[in-house]
């Protein structure tokens, strides 16, 4: 049931405030403790973990990239993220002190399933982050954190991705709590900020018409570039993936800091370049990314900048600014991806594509 929407994908994008709220529901106890009942791995075992490997495919892999930044920062445990299809065949170093985190919306992706089977054969514990109750990946894992996005029909993941991010934040906080590196107040502060995400997502959705207008303006460009840094890098990759998946357009995501090491060579006059700007803060990331906007603008790119609502420093170099509500850096991808989803969905539907069932793609790929 599309409840008045033209496509399931659009409906699912607009369901995200609810999906995120549901994924957070019941995770935080009255006495200020994070509760993840589904984690059936004992605290002793979780304290022994000396390495985390996150695996997934497609969108789930990009959620894993965000998780790496978050989990390392909060827990100080070394964290790798790898495409499930690569992990299995490179003789990875995994043992009983390795924690594997498998991210899969469907819970049926063959590459991810093979990867966790391999990890468990080496004695590693596996936690699945999954949206589908009773699917194969959670059944074959030691523990599961369910996202509560509800059924996702559109092949290109949207609410699946946002809720995977939420589950990754919860896992990072939980590990930090169990290992005693983060305490009540700090955890409470992040939980409060997470609880404030649904209304912030809603504000971005309320601005959909502006993004749709941009999609119509930029419809006939050959190539699209997405730049981001730190957790904005996976968000940029996800923005490019959406455009490939449903608009069948050539889109590339790059780490903004890599621009001068190659990608800047492809910037042509008139090329749309989306730039995700980190919140202005203590470190220099923000200013470095603002310089990147300047660099591509100087080469004639059409700069579409996603920046915090009170960030005035981007205005001089931005053809268009999409304003993001203020949040801490680590949470920003939850917001930055939303306009990129709206952009891809509108552009692809304007091209006449079936965005729910894009050509050549399947919702879950059950062969390797
Ligand atoms: C791909 C889908 O085949 O699988 C992507 O087309 C998806 O949209 C990816 O992100 C991973 O799927 P899952 O179910 O493992 O999260």
Automatic annotation (TrEMBL):
GO biological process annotation, one example: UDP-N-acetylglucosamine metabolic process
GO cellular component entries: cytosol
GO MF: carbohydrate derivative binding; glutamine-fructose-6-phosphate transaminase (isomerizing) activity
Signal peptide per UniProt: none
Subcellular location: Cytoplasm
Tree of life domain: Bacteria
Keywords assigned: Aminotransferase, Cytoplasm, Glutamine amidotransferase, Repeat, Transferase
Principal EC category: transferase
Domain SIS, chain residue ranges per copy: 42-181, 214-358
Catalytic activity: D-fructose 6-phosphate + L-glutamine = D-glucosamine 6-phosphate + L-glutamate
EC number per UniProt: 2.6.1.16
Active site residues according to the UniProt entry: 363
The protein's role, per its UniProt record: Catalyzes the first step in hexosamine metabolism, converting fructose-6P into glucosamine-6P using glutamine as a nitrogen source.
Self-association state and partner proteins as the record states: Homodimer.
Protein known as: Glutamine--fructose-6-phosphate aminotransferase [isomerizing]
Species the sequence originates in: Propionibacterium acidifaciens F0233
Span covered, complete protein: 247 to 614 of 614
């Amino acid at each position: 049931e599309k409840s008045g929407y033209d496509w399931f994908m659009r409906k699912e994008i607009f369901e995200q405030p609810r999906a995120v709220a549901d994924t957070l529901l019941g995770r935080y106890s009255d006495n200020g403790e994070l509760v993840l009942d589904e984690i059936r791995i004992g605290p002793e075992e979780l304290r022994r973990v000396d390495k985390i490997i996150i695996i997934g495919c497609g969108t789930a892999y990009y959620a894993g990239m965000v998780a790496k930044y978050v989990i390392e920062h909060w827990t100080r445990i070394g964290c790798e993220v790898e495409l499930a299809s690569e992990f299995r065949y490179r003789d990875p170093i995994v043992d009983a002190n390795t924690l594997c985190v498998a991210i899969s919306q469907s819970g049926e992706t063959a590459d991810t399933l093979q990867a966790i089977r391999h990890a468990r054969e080496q004695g590693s514990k596996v936690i699945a982050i999954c949206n589908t109750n009773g699917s194969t990946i959670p059944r074959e894992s030691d523990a599961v954190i369910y996202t509560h996005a509800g059924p996702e029909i559109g092949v290109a993941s949207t609410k699946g991705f946002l809720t995977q991010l939420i589950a990754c934040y919860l896992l990072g906080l939980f590990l930090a709590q169990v290992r005693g590196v983060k305490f009540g107040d700090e955890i409470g502060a992040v939980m409060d900020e997470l609880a404030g995400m649904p209304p912030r997502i809603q504000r971005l959705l309320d601005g959909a018409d502006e993004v749709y207008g941009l999609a119509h303006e930029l419809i006939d460009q050959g190539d699209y570039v997405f730049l981001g840094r730190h957790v904005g890098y996976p968000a940029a990759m996800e923005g490019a993936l959406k455009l490939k998946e449903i608009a069948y357009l050539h889109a590339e995501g790059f780490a903004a800091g890599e621009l001068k090491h190659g990608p800047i060579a492809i910037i042509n006059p008139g090329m749309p370049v989306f730039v995700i700007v980190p919140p202005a803060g203590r470190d220099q990331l923000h200013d470095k990314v603002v310089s990147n906007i300047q660099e591509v603008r100087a080469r004639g790119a059409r700069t579409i900048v996603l920046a915090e609502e009170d960030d005035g420093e981007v205005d001089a170099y931005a053809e268009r600014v999409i304003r993001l509500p203020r949040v801490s850096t680590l949470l920003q991808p939850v917001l930055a991806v939303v306009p990129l989803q709206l952009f891809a969905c509108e552009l692809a539907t304007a091209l006449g594509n079936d965005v729910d069932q894009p050509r050549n793609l399947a919702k879950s790929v059950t062969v390797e």
